[in-house]
Design a protein that fits this description.
Elements lengths: L2 E5 L4 E5 L3 E7 L5 E8 L3 H5 L8 E2 L3 E2 L19 E4 L9 E11 L2 E10 L4 E10 L4 E10 L7 E13 L6 E6 L7 E6 L3 E7 L11 E5 L10 E6 L5 E7 L5 E7 L6 E3 L4 E3 L3 E6 L2 H17 L10 E3 L1 H4 L5 H13 L4 E4 L29 H9 L3 E6 L3 E2 L4 H5 L19 E2 L5 H18 L3 E4 L11 H5 L8 H19 L4 E4 L17 E3 L6 H11 L8 E5 L7 H8 L3 E4 L8 H23 L1 E6 L7 E7 L2 E8 L10 E2 L9 E5 L8 E3 H6 L2 E2 L10 E9 L2
Parallel strand pairs: 23-24, 23-32, 24-25, 25-28, 28-29, 29-30, 30-31, 31-32
Antiparallel strand pairs: 1-2, 2-3, 3-4, 5-6, 7-12, 8-9, 9-10, 10-11, 11-21, 11-22, 12-19, 12-20, 13-14, 13-16, 15-18, 16-17, 17-22, 18-19, 26-27, 33-34, 34-35, 35-40, 36-39, 37-38, 37-40
Helix pairs in contact: 4-5, 7-9, 10-11, 11-12
Length: 709
């Protein structure tokens, strides 16, 4: 059960999830500090922490990193979570608590702590939320200019919250880094002294990092040890700064925006930050991941109870050579394999015969689809599949009717180049007219053709991010476009889903460039990476799984053939299975095998997509590894041995997450005749696996178990 307990006498606010407690205390010198973040405590135990000696900085100063929202002002020299410049160049905040309130919500409880500057008319509301069934605590901040008339305030930084990690003998951080086609490469390294900043200046979540970080004492493993994690639910530019203080403490502050961007807060204006989530687990990195996955399924995803369909995407088969006859031919082949969703990729609209033209002109190419998309959509449905298309609403080619008519709609500065990337410019989605244009054609496209799936792509970062019209109108706050672009993308998706309840959306940004808990609250899956090579995908999927569940991870089998087809399927079956190869070139034997693997995946996908995930064995790609899923009585194990070694492969694999006293039976094509063992045996003595793996490169297997009593 979640709870929020207020002790006004001791000035303590405690927020508890099923397994954790987060507590805030107002000190005698009126600073809001973190009192506890860790294992669940009773209200009496939490209150008993009041009066403990807090960590101090040199000259016996209070440690600013303990504060809920360290500000730029006073005797503070750490990383500020809030920086504001007031009229007259005053750049020092002095906040005092004014009130608190607790509200019961449909799926949890919310706490608001209202602070105000002691001189200037600025309210700062710290919001907290705990949700039933989740160990993640949600925080965000609202800034309000409550003055009547007068000058605006300039906001330089507005983070959603700062998190203090308990004093540990050492600190190690976990995060992912990478690039296009190499996203989510996990790294675990000692947290350096000073400040470590992760972030994106791209206007999207980014390929180079993902907005989360985990801290431990350097000894946590996959299945044991304490882990503290912070994740930002935002799909635009962002920063997470972890600071390791000389005093022996570490803290993390996280928020949207990037260095250099500022926002104006005029009288009556309000600025609300995106949620930042904090999660503590004493179950190691695996336990932390499963807690994040539960939060995503219970509190974030629009339709977590659904199983995602097996899809086929036409891109690798035909690229831009798209027409009705060719798509129908591929659709027929896909349907024979058991595919449930057919997705037509780029090249169906405007004069889009290559990457240089047509983006922005979202109507069917009249030469390729002389009667529109209606016949294709109907034929796909008659084959027993749903119909989806690829779109890229935020982009435009200069060679397009849209750009020729509205060159002012793209991001640009006067007297500066309009740099193209991939022969594209970025539409200014912060503009209301651009937002309404995008919703209009998307609404018509989906409604006219019964489309139930959009692959929403975004293939380049924001650049020359100016809005000259706003400046000419006397509004100097053009940097708000960095916020409003993302929020209007959210708004269009939300309106589309409300208007078309059957619609499902995949978030794609040149691969895995827009993956976060903000976009996941209005999409159903994410495109993990443009790199579909099965061997490379293992490390990419491993990094993604640290925070995000398998049920959102699109994973395709394609013609990137560094591994046997069986291995490619087994890697893709660890997420949401898709097929993206050129089916015209697949042999009859490969097509027959594909039918069997698709059928097998359909049997195990409720377990994969909805089950608790356990990462077993070696680091993926470096030895014998496995991904195990447990859902109710069913267990699915995907086993990989990428290359033979001089030494023999391990003979057994210890499973996890089983009921030690229950009996599990292995089953396959003839369920009921497999070996049986207790969960205790499988987790201690292990499951024999060597005989299941061939001695060649890229050996793999699928193993299914069922609890029988």
């Amino acid at each position: 059960m979640t709870s929020v307990v207020v002790d006004r006498e001791q000035r303590v606010w405690s927020l508890s999830t099923p397994n954790t407690t987060y507590a805030v205390h107002l000190t005698d010198d009126d600073r809001l500090v973190q009192l506890h973040w860790g294992a669940r405590l009773s209200p009496a135990e939490t209150t008993a922490l009041v009066g403990r000696t807090l960590t101090t900085a040199p000259y016996d100063l209070p440690l600013d990193a303990e504060e809920q929202l360290p500000v730029d002002g006073g005797l503070r020299w750490g990383v500020p979570s809030l920086q504001v410049t007031f009229p007259g160049g005053v750049r020092s905040l002095e906040l005092a608590l004014r009130s608190d309130r607790v509200e019961q919500e449909q799926h949890g409880t919310r706490l608001d702590l209202v602070l105000a500057d002691t001189h200037f008319p600025l309210l700062v509301v710290l919001h907290y939320r705990v949700r039933e069934g989740s160990d993640a605590l949600e925080r965000w901040v609202t800034l309000r200019h409550i003055g009547v008339g007068g000058e605006p305030f300039t906001v330089h930084r507005a983070d959603s919250g700062s998190w203090l990690v308990p004093e540990l003998p050492d600190y190690r951080y976990s995060a992912v880094s990478g690039a296009w086609s190499a996203e989510n490469q996990l790294r675990r390294e000692p947290l350096p002294g000073g400040e470590l900043t992760l972030g994106s200046r791209h206007g999207i979540t980014g390929h180079h990092a993902n907005p989360w970080i985990m801290l431990d004492d350097g000894t946590a493993t996959e299945d044991r040890g304490e882990v503290w994690g912070v994740a930002l639910a935002w799909s635009g530019t962002w920063r997470i700064t972890a600071q390791r203080r000389f005093e022996g403490r570490a803290a993390v502050t996280a928020g949207f925006g990037h260095d250099g961007a500022t926002w104006q807060l005029r009288p009556g204006d309000e600025l609300t930050t995106p949620p930042v989530l904090g999660l503590y687990s004493d179950g190691g990195f695996g336990g932390a991941s499963r807690a994040w996955h539960r939060h995503a399924r219970r509190c974030v995803l629009p339709h977590p109870q659904e199983v995602r369909p097996v899809l086929y995407n036409s891109w690798e088969a035909v690229a831009f050579d798209v027409d009705e006859a060719g798509q129908l031919e591929l659709a027929r082949k896909a349907a024979e394999l058991g595919v449930e969703l057919f997705v037509m990729d780029d090249g169906w609209f405007g004069r889009r015969t290559d990457s240089t033209a047509g983006l922005g002109d979202w109507w069917p190419n009249p030469d390729r689809f002389p009667d529109g998309l209606g016949r294709l959509a109907d034929e796909v449905r008659s084959l027993g599949m749903s119909f989806g298309v690829w779109v890229e609403p935020e982009m435009v080619n200069p060679d397009s009717d849209l750009y020729r008519a509205r060159p002012d709609w793209v991001l640009h500065h006067p007297d500066r180049r309009r740099d193209q990337l991939r022969t594209q410019l970025v539409l200014n989605f912060a503009r209301e007219d651009v937002r309404e244009w995008a919703f209009g054609w998307l609404d018509k496209l989906v409604g006219d053709h019964g489309i139930t799936f959009l692959k929403w792509d975004m293939n380049r970062a924001l650049s020359q991010a100016g809005w000259p019209e706003r400046l000419r109108e006397g509004d100097g706050d053009q940097d708000r476009l960095w916020i409003d672009h993302t929020r209007n993308v959210y708004a269009v998706m939300d309106r589309l889903r409300a208007s078309h309840p059957a619609l499902r959306i995949e978030s794609c940004a040149g691969g895995g460039g827009r993956v976060d808990y903000g976009i996941l609250s209005r999409t159903d899956e994410v495109w993990t990476s443009d790199n579909t090579d099965a061997f490379h995908r293992q490390s990419i999927q491993h990094g993604l799984s640290q925070l995000y569940p398998a049920g959102v991870m699109a994973a395709w089998v394609t013609d990137a053939a560094s591994a046997p087809l069986e291995y490619r399927f087994h890697v893709a079956m660890a997420g949401v299975l898709g097929i993206g190869g050129d089916l015209h070139k697949w042999t009859p034997e490969e097509l027959d095998a594909t039918r069997r693997w698709v059928a097998l995946y359909k049997e195990i996908r409720p377990t994969v997509q909805h089950g608790d995930q356990y990462r077993l064995g070696a680091e993926p790609g470096r030895g014998l590894s496995a991904v195990q899923y447990v859902h109710g009585d069913d267990v699915a194990l995907l086993l990989y041995h990428p290359h033979p070694d001089v030494r023999p492969a391990p003979s057994i694999l210890r499973l996890a997450g089983l009921d030690p006293d229950s009996v599990y039976m292995e089953h396959g094509d003839s369920a009921g005749d497999g070996p049986r063992a207790t969960g205790r045996v499988l987790m201690t003595a292990g499951l024999p696996v060597r005989h299941r793996l061939a001695g060649s490169e890229r050996a793999s297997a699928v193993i299914r178990l069922r609890r029988i009593h």
